[in-house]
Specification:
By secondary structure, this protein is of the alpha/beta class. It has two domains: about 210 residues, Type I PLP-dependent aspartate aminotransferase-like (Major domain) (Aspartate Aminotransferase, domain 2, 3-Layer(aba) Sandwich), CATH 3.40.640.10; about 130 residues, Alpha-Beta Complex (Aspartate Aminotransferase, domain 1). It is built from 14 helices and twelve strands. α4 links the parallel β2 and β3.
């Protein structure tokens, strides 16, 4: 079945007898038992709810996994993921990483005794592995510098050393990238972003693919942790993500096509010094992108000539909104220095290229020419 069809019909399980085309919102915290020792399959919504289950089955189908667990936010998913590890365990993570994930690692996980090393490539990841290493955690493309990690190359390393490979697939979604098919064990999504697609809800998802080479009972462990810690996705928010996924395929194509046009335009502007978009052929990871993904997504980062130009753009955009987040219908521009990566120490930010001249653009569904014209007038100071 084509993935665009899976987006709409990813879960064929029926939950009522009315013939409803859309899955109902089962706004119930608890479910009655048919008898002693009997269950309908649903007991308490913190454990499972029919609307949430529908979403989980859909994402499992899209990612080619064996199970998915939905959470109240992307960070709730990260927090449960980290509960797989114990004090003394070591994780190798992407050097360039979403600021919220880095904050969780450094302020929560390290406090709990988990150790981290950071690397940019498969070769560097291999060098960082120690006898205490239990997993490799990568974003690709990375946030906000748009570096690409060779998933298959990293998977060869983790499989050889019997380590978990966790991939954050938020930026490309299963429409363009399938980490599990490339050897990953767990895929992470901030469902808030492209899966939801409308900037109207928060969600996180973990999809697992279990086989003879993975940790036995991985999905069962994650479900136990999710039930115990309580960060489950509500029925209404599950419905919103299901609704968003129905148009995911067509939205991603539009994001992708517009972003390529805008990135090419940015490269020709005198006040734009560097454009980070994995769909540009001069991107250092372009060949890896073409090999492991079928599209480039809608995320662009770029540096300008000075901080004044950066602030002028942020204060003068009209169609584009100066706001955090990404992946929605509306184009959003973000200042990583003060927003997504504000909690990184200054030396860490600067080492990654995150400074006062860096902006991150989430290309929305508006006409590409309108986005370009908005950027043009903002670069010129709102003239």
């Amino acid at each position: 079945m084509d993935i665009s069809t899976l987006c709409i019909h990813g879960c064929e399980k029926k939950y009522d007898i009315t013939g409803a085309v859309s899955v109902p919102i089962f706004a119930s915290s608890t479910f009655a038992h048919p008898g002693v020792g009997q269950s309908t399959g649903f007991d308490y919504s913190r454990s499972q709810n029919p609307t949430k289950e529908h979403l989980e089955h859909t994402v499992t189908a899209l990612e080619g996994g064996t199970d998915t667990i939905a959470f109240s936010s992307g960070m709730a998913a990260v927090s449960v993921l980290m509960e797989l590890f114990s004090p003394g365990d070591h994780i190798v993570a992407s050097y360039d990483l979403y600021g919220g994930t880095f904050r969780f690692f450094t302020h929560i996980s390290e406090k709990n005794g988990i150790k981290f090393s950071y690397a940019t490539s498969a070769e560097e990841i291999s060098e960082e592995i120690t006898s205490d290493t239990k997993a490799v955690f990568i974003e690709t493309p990375t946030n906000p510098m748009m570096n690409v990690v060779d998933i298959e190359a990293v998977a060869h390393i983790t499989q050889e050393k019997n380590l978990l490979l966790i991939v954050d697939n938020t930026f490309l979604t299963p429409i363009f990238q399938k980490p599990l098919a490339l050897g990953a064990n767990i895929v992470l999504h901030s469902g808030t972003k492209y899966l939801g697609g409308h900037n109207d809800t928060l969600a996180g998802l973990l999809t697992v693919k279990e086989n003879a080479n993975t940790v036995c009972g991985l999905a069962e462990k994650l479900r136990f942790l999710a039930k115990t810690t309580g960060g489950c996705l509500s029925p209404f928010d599950s419905f919103l993500i299901i609704r968003g996924i129905k148009t995911l395929s067509v939205r991603m194509e539009r994001h992708n096509n517009s972003a390529l046009l805008i990135a090419k335009w940015l490269t020709n502007q005198s006040k734009i010094k560097k454009v980070f978009f994995i769909g540009l052929q001069d991107h250092p990871d372009y060949e890896i992108s073409c090999r492991q993904a079928s599209g480039f997504g809608g995320m662009i980062s770029f540096t300008v000539d000075d901080e004044q130009t950066a602030k002028s753009i942020l204060e003068n955009v009209k169609i584009i909104k100066y706001a955090e987040s990404l992946g929605g219908a509306e184009s959003l521009i973000t200042y990583p220095l003060l927003q997504t990566h504000a909690d990184l120490p200054q030396n860490e930010r600067e080492a990654r290229g995150i400074n006062g001249c860096l902006l991150r653009l989430s290309v929305g569904l508006e006409a590409a020419d309108d986005i370009i014209n908005d950027l043009k007038q903002a670069i010129e100071g709102g003239k």
